[in-house]
Design brief:
- The complex is a heterodimer of chains A (173) and B (113).
- Chain A is of the alpha/beta class and 173 residues long.
- Chain A has helices at 13-21, 38-52, 82-90, 101-112, 134-153; strands spanning 2-6, 28-32, 57-61, 75-80, 115-121, 156-161, 164-169.
- In chain A, helix 3 crosses helix 5 (134-153).
- The longest helix of chain A has 20 residues, at 134-153.
- Chain A starts with a strand and ends with a strand.
- By secondary structure, chain B is α/β, with parallel strands linked by helices.
- In chain B, helix 2 (40-46) crosses helix 4 (78-97).
- The N and C termini of chain B lie close together (12 Å).
- The chains are: A alpha/beta (173), B alpha/beta (113).
- The A-B interface holds A 4, 6, 8, 122, 124-131, 140-141, 143-145, 147-152, 157, 159, 168-169 and B 7-11, 14, 41, 45, 67-73, 75, 80, 83-84, 87, 105-108, 110.
Chain lengths: 173, 113
């Protein structure tokens, strides 16, 4: 089973994703892609760790190259999130922009080949009408294309609104 | 007229092409004889005050494509606020008159009217 969850900031994606993951078999993995910068980042990590306490997740910190991850075939995996992963892969420390669309898709496919259930959290970053610099525009485009590619292949796509899942594809599990 | 909305890079143009339109049918933020108008928000942003005047011409189109621009932080700049406001208001009017309104999320079309 492959499930994509989208929505704006703080719409309940993580909470819903974790609850959903709980319904699938163990072992249960959480792939954390966020690079921690400063106090705000650490606060977010602490908050998410607290949320996952007692839910039997094995946390894998992996901010890029998720192809390196090895897990057992019957696993349930929650990958959070496409926004961080895409940004981490796309921009290097020299300010270069790398075309990572195919690379990320193939990394995810490899992850899928290893697990039974995959839940991917992404984000809607293209609805604020702001004219960004070229790098950010490229980022919005890349993330958008990745979302489309995953939605096309996955069994279920839900958009979270105020914590409520709206079914865009498949049925509500 | 079909109004197609959605976030930037949500698959709107691809969806319109799946209806049978080709690149040569699609005008990019310019009003001419082509049946599909893309990036309406760019036209509004370049002239928010005059954007309401586009309404009659837009109704003659087969398809109008517009980015959803009203989420996220309300911009500090007055001109950007006005442009977002004008885009939203124009889309509301267009949606009322449209025979169909389709919203794209992750490439998935949802008919909302």
């Amino acid at each position: 089973m492959r499930i994509l969850l989208t929505g704006g900031s703080a719409c309940g994606k993580s909470t819903y994703a974790e609850a959903l993951a709980m319904r699938f078999s163990l072992p249960r993995y959480y792939i954390a892609t966020m690079r921690v910068f400063g106090e705000e980042g650490q606060k977010k990590v602490d908050q998410h760790r607290k949320m996952r306490e007692s839910k039997n997740f094995i946390t894998i910190e992996c901010d890029r190259d998720i192809r390196r991850i090895r897990i057992p075939q019957n696993s349930t995996v929650l990958l959070e999130c496409m926004c961080n992963l895409t940004a981490n892969e796309m921009f290097d420390c020299y300010g270069n922009i790398i075309d990572v669309h195919d690379k990320i898709l193939s990394d995810i496919e490899f992850l899928e080949s290893q697990c039974q259930t995959l839940i991917v959290v992404t984000n809607d970053v293209g609805s604020d009408g702001v004219k960004y610099d070229k790098g950010t525009q490229e980022y919005i485009k890349t993330l958008g294309r990745l979302n489309i590619a995953l939605a096309e292949r996955f069994d279920c796509v839900y958009e979270l609104v105020c914590g409520i899942p709206l079914v865009l594809k498949g049925s509500l599990l | 007229m079909i109004l197609v909305i959605g976030a930037a890079a949500s698959g709107k143009t691809e969806y319109v092409k799946s209806l049978g339109f080709t690149d040569s049918d699609i005008a990019n933020a310019v009003m001419d004889e082509r049946p599909v108008l893309n990036n309406l928000q760019d036209m509004v942003f370049s002239d928010p005050d005059g954007s309401a005047n586009l309404y009659d011409e837009l109704l003659k189109k087969s398809v109008v494509i517009c980015n959803e621009v009203g989420s996220g932080i309300i911009p500090v700049e007055r001109t950007e606020r006005d442009a977002r406001e004008a885009t939203g208001r124009l889309c509301n009017r267009l949606a009322q008159a449209a025979e169909r309104v389709v919203r794209l999320v992750c490439g998935i079309p949802i008919v909302i009217k």
